[in-house]
């Protein structure tokens, strides 16, 4: 593997653990913020996604090994969100669960974690998932008001109580609304991407083309019934509400830029080539081969491996959403694989430019040599292999639910391709999901 | 949908008024609950001859001791659960829960008087929700004229008696083909169905038993144990009730509906502990996909219930292709295509059952429903021609024709029209989705194997049509 450079591949010396298999998935259609799910809580949506999965695979009353899910925007009362959702679902109440949070990579990380547990033999089955509601986002009180209220609860005498209350100022009463800005830079995710977009010189046209393709491919998949066994309608919504099947480059070109307005370069990022705020939930059913056989389920894909990277976007030179660029080559090297071995590449479309930058970086001889420590470009991925059924620009992006959407969708596609090939050739997919904090999670899936 | 009128005439002050005014007074029907007795009281078996004796012995659970008919002995051994309090002579003051008239050996209309008048003498004292069931032979061109006259007379008697019954009582008949013994599984199965609360809204119907096919269940409360059933249009209303009823009777249910109905479909699948399959039945490969799902997930496919259906009412003078074509596509063409795929698969051959939903509109016609009636009449014809294709495998195909059933569909009828429509049958009320479901479950059961290509109405003896 001359092209992979450092770090050197670590040969697997342990007895190969058993396979962890993706057996299926279910999500609810994704709604735009303030849309059909405006009155639905994270728990409501995650429960619905679980119940749809249970119905599809006949898991009523089943004690699943473990359910792992999470939400990025989460009420403090939802500390046990996943377990509470399990209790409200048709699964056995003896199914354990835990919450996990890794910003937008939450969904993919739950898949990785449960797959690892299955590979180690700790569990036989698992349901990974994620949910997010920007419509039902938590609103907190200001830090000053919070301190006053806490002191008030601890005060014993009326004097102490009055003293605590006397510290309140009218401005303290303003609520604190969750933001998507990075705590260490104060920049929103879009502004961060705008910096990277400008650095790589990604044009408006290139971004709009990615957005258009996403909508066209997602619409085609819906029309072909591809999502009939991946999605269960919810609250009257039967398709992803953000999908614009009839959009065009002309329409996308009319949108005003929303990010990067203060930069020296032309602003290129619009509402059309950035993901909207979205509500939704997704789940992925995982299991061992034995568990799949015992439940008459046909495995779609196996979770081969995963790698997470992080970039120093605060003081370093790398863009906030570029960690996947770093994680993928390490992951491929570990398995002696190249991008050419990947039949599908799924790159979460946080922004169209995120996809363009990621693919561009892997194609760049200089970047791959200087930043990735490779001997040359990682490789070029034809767009026909990237996000083949559309991605977040069209479907929307309920933060923690995106990983589950991608894993279930690409697993079905892998199984379909393998069946169409009709031979033993491996069919693989690389998934890359960027996240706040400069994190990027990647994973390789292979048709079962 | 609540039937307010029915509630009013059954409670308090308004009940008294209704009685004094002589208004129609429908009663809430007795419906099946597993574990409840088949009938609440003694059963009178009328009629003379070997068949009447045999039926009486089977009902009493004493057929083996009678030892007159080997088949009856087998039947009771195979299917315990017949230990009714059977009487053979009408007694003054006795309150019968059911009267069974065995009239299979008629040779002349003169012979009708004795059993029918005996039946008449019991009617005043019938228990609430009582059952009258005739067992007779069909009148065919091969019969002598007097025999045929006597046999066809039973048809008129039964339909008239059913119209005279009150307080939730029903009258139905089993018409046993010549050469088929009265102990055939489907004769006993149909007899039991008509005696039971499962047939609450089936009234004035004569069900033909064409052969001695089928078998008696090991457990009358779970006749579908081990069977895998597919129900289309299962997300709501009658389809959801069918899924629940088949599951209650022991079947593993695959609930099918269009993807857009997935949320309700998932709820139904979870309730019956089956699986949900989001599938448009008009898809070219729907039958293949149904079979693949059932086999992959549940190992087999035994029962298919074609329930998915739509309406687009319009007077024929205003009918347009966009109102005609979808009805044909969903209500009948899809069923034909699915059946063909199942029948040619080679994997639908273990005593398979097809039960399709027809409608009284398809039998009697309905203003504004030429399209719907075409499709539902089509269902009646389809099962008649499909069943013979299945008999070689011990299978059969039959249809259920609902009358006025309380569903979302009938809830859309204007209020006054709806009130009138409900009263236009002998039970003077609308049926419930579960009433249709019970009949579907019966026709899907092992004991219905001798019912070949028939359509059974669930209409409370609606005044329209046959």
From TrEMBL, chain A:
GO CC term, one of those recorded: cytosol
Pfam families the record matches: Thiolase_C (PF02803), Thiolase_N (PF00108)
Active-site residue list: 104, 397, 434
Domain Thiolase C-terminal: 298-446
UniProt entry keywords in alphabetical sequence: Acyltransferase, Transferase
Any one Gene Ontology molecular-function term assigned to this protein's record: acyltransferase activity, transferring groups other than amino-acyl groups
Origin: domain of life: Bacteria
Domain (Thiolase N-terminal): residue spans on this chain: 22-289
Similarity annotation: Belongs to the thiolase-like superfamily. Thiolase family.
Database matches in NCBIfam families: AcCoA-C-Actrans (TIGR01930), PRK09268.1 (NF006740)
UniProt xrefs under PANTHER family: ACETYL-COA ACYLTRANSFERASE FADA2 (3-KETOACYL-COA THIOLASE) (BETA-KETOTHIOLASE)-RELATED
Protein name, entry field: Acetyl-CoA acetyltransferase
From TrEMBL, chain B:
Single annotated GO MF: oxidoreductase activity, acting on the CH-OH group of donors, NAD or NADP as acceptor
Pfam families linked to this entry: adh_short_C2
InterPro entries to which the protein is assigned, alphabetical: KR_dom, NAD(P)-bd_dom_sf, Sc_DH/Rdtase_CS, SDR_fam
Domain of life: Bacteria
Residue span(s) of domain Ketoreductase: 227-403
NCBIfam families, sorted: PRK08261.1 (NF006110)
Family membership: Belongs to the short-chain dehydrogenases/reductases (SDR) family.
PANTHER family hit by this protein: 3-OXOACYL-[ACYL-CARRIER-PROTEIN] REDUCTASE [NADH], SHORT-CHAIN DEHYDROGENASES/REDUCTASES FAMILY MEMBER
Identification of the protein by name: 3-ketoacyl-ACP reductase
Species in which this protein is naturally found: Cellulomonas cellasea DSM 20118
Phylogenetic lineage: Bacteria, Bacillati, Actinomycetota, Actinomycetes, Micrococcales
């Amino acid at each position: 593997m001359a092209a992979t450079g450092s770090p050197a591949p670590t040969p697997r010396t342990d007895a190969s653990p058993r396979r962890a298999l993706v057996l299926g998935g279910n999500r609810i259609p994704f709604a735009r913020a303030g849309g059909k799910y405006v009155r639905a809580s994270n728990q409501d949506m995650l429960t619905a996604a679980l119940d749809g999965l249970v119905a599809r695979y006949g898991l009523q009353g089943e004690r699943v090994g473990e359910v792992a899910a999470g939400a990025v925007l989460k009420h403090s009362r939802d500390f046990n969100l996943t377990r509470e959702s399990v209790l409200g679902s048709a699964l056995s109440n003896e199914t354990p669960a835990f919450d996990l949070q890794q910003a937008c990579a939450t969904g993919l990380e739950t898949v990785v974690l449960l797959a690892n547990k299955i590979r180690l033999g700790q569990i036989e089955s698992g349901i990974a998932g994620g949910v997010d509601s920007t419509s039902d986002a938590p609103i907190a009180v200001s830090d000053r008001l919070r301190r006053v209220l806490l002191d008030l609860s601890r005060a014993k005498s009326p004097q102490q109580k009055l003293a605590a209350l006397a510290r309140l100022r009218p401005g303290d009463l303003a609520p604190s609304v969750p933001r998507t800005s990075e705590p260490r830079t104060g920049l929103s995710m879009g502004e961060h991407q705008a910096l990277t977009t400008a650095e790589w010189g990604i044009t408006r046209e290139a971004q709009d083309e990615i957005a258009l393709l996403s909508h066209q491919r997602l619409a085609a998949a819906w029309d072909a019934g591809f999502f009939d066994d991946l999605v269960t309608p919810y609250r009257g919504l039967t398709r992803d509400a953000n999908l614009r099947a009839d959009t065009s480059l002309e329409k996308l070109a009319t949108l005003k830029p929303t990010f990067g307005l203060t930069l020296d370069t032309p602003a290129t990022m619009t509402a059309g080539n950035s993901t909207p705020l979205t509500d939704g939930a997704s789940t992925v059913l995982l299991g061992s081969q034995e568990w799949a056989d015992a439940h008459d389920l046909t495995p779609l894909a196996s979770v081969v491996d995963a790698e997470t990277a992080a970039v120093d976007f605060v003081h370093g030179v790398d863009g906030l959403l570029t960690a996947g660029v770093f994680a993928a080559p390490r992951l491929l090297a570990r398995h002696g694989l190249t991008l050419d071995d990947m039949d599908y590449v799924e790159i979460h479309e946080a922004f169209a430019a995120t996809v363009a930058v990621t693919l561009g970086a892997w194609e760049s001889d200089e970047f791959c040599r200087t930043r990735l420590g490779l001997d040359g470009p990682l490789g070029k991925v034809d767009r026909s292999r990237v996000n083949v059924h559309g991605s977040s620009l069209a479907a929307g992006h309920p933060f923690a639910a995106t990983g589950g959407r991608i894993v279930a969708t690409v697993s079905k596609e892998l199984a379909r391709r393998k069946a169409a090939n009709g031979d033993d050739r491996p069919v693989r997919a690389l998934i890359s999901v960027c996240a706040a904090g400069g994190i990027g999670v990647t994973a390789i899936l292979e048709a079962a | 949908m609540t039937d307010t009128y029915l509630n009013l005439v059954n409670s308090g002050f308004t009940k008294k008024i209704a009685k004094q005014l002589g208004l129609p007074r429908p009663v809430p029907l007795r419906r099946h609950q597993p574990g409840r007795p088949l009938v609440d009281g003694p059963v009178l078996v009328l009629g003379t001859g070997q068949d009447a004796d045999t039926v009486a012995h089977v009902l009493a659970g004493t057929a083996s001791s009678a030892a007159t008919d080997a088949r009856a002995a087998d039947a009771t051994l195979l299917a315990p659960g017949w230990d009714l309090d059977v009487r053979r002579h009408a007694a003054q003051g006795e309150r019968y829960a059911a009267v069974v008239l065995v009239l299979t050996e008629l040779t002349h209309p003169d012979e009708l008087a004795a059993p029918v008048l005996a039946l008449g003498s019991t009617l005043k004292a019938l228990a609430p929700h009582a059952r009258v069931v005739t067992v007779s032979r069909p009148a065919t061109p091969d019969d002598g004229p007097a025999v045929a006259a006597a046999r066809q007379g039973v048809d008129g008697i039964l339909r008239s008696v059913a119209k005279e019954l009150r307080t939730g009582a029903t009258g139905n008949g089993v018409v046993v083909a010549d050469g088929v013994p009265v102990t055939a599984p489907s004769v006993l199965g149909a007899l039991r169905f008509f005696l039971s609360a499962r047939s609450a809204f089936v009234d004035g119907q004569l069900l033909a038993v064409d052969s001695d096919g089928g078998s008696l269940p090991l457990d009358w409360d779970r006749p579908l144990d081990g069977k895998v059933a597919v129900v289309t249009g299962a997300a709501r209303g009658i389809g959801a009730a069918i899924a629940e009823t088949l599951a209650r009777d022991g079947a593993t249910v695959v609930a099918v509906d269009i993807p857009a109905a997935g949320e309700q479909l998932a709820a139904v699948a979870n309730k019956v502990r089956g699986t949900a399959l989001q599938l448009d039945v008009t898809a070219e490969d729907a039958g293949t996909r149904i079979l693949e799902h059932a086999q992959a997930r549940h190992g087999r496919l035994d029962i298919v219930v074609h329930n998915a259906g739509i309406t687009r009412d319009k007077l024929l003078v205003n009918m347009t292709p966009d109102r005609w074509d979808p009805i044909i596509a969903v209500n009948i063409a899809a069923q034909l295509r699915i059946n063909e795929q199942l029948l040619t698969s080679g994997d639908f051959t273990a005593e398979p059952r097809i039960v399709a939903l027809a409608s009284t509109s398809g039998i009697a016609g309905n203003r504004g429903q030429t399209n719907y009636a075409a499709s539902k009449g089509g269902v009646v014809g389809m099962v008649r021609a499909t069943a013979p294709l299945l008999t070689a495998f011990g299978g059969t195909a039959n249809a259920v024709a609902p009358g006025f059933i309380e569903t979302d569909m009938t809830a859309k009828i204007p209020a006054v029209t709806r009130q009138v429509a409900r009263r236009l049958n002998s039970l003077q009320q609308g049926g419930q989705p579960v009433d249709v479901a019970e009949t579907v479950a019966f026709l899907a059961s092992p004991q219905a194997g001798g019912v070949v290509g028939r359509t059974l109405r669930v209409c409370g003896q609606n005044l329209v049509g046959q």
